[in-house]
Design brief:
alpha+beta; Alpha-Beta Plaits; 41% strand; globular
Length: 76
């Protein structure tokens, strides 16, 4: 099982819709709203590295309202 943490910046006003959409998405294990430099912390999990990459690239980064992301792969 591969995992990653993704920090997300959103456009103003898109927080609630983004959180709702991400919580129902396959491969997204948890979504936390943050105060500070980033708007969301998203835990992504997949069977292999490619599944995690696909979830991030096609599911998370392509969402309306997502301005930028930083991905940190969990090693252990």
């Amino acid at each position: 099982m591969e995992r990653a943490i993704v920090l997300v910046n959103l456009s103003p006003g898109s927080e609630e819709a983004s959180i709702s959409a991400l919580k129902g998405m396959a491969g997204i294990k948890s979504v936390y709203q943050l105060y500070g430099l980033y708007d969301l912390l998203v835990m992504v999990e997949g069977a292999d590295d490619q599944a995690v990459k696909t979830t991030i690239a096609e599911g998370l980064r392509s969402r309306p309202g997502v301005v930028s992301t930083i991905t940190m792969k969990i090693l252990s």
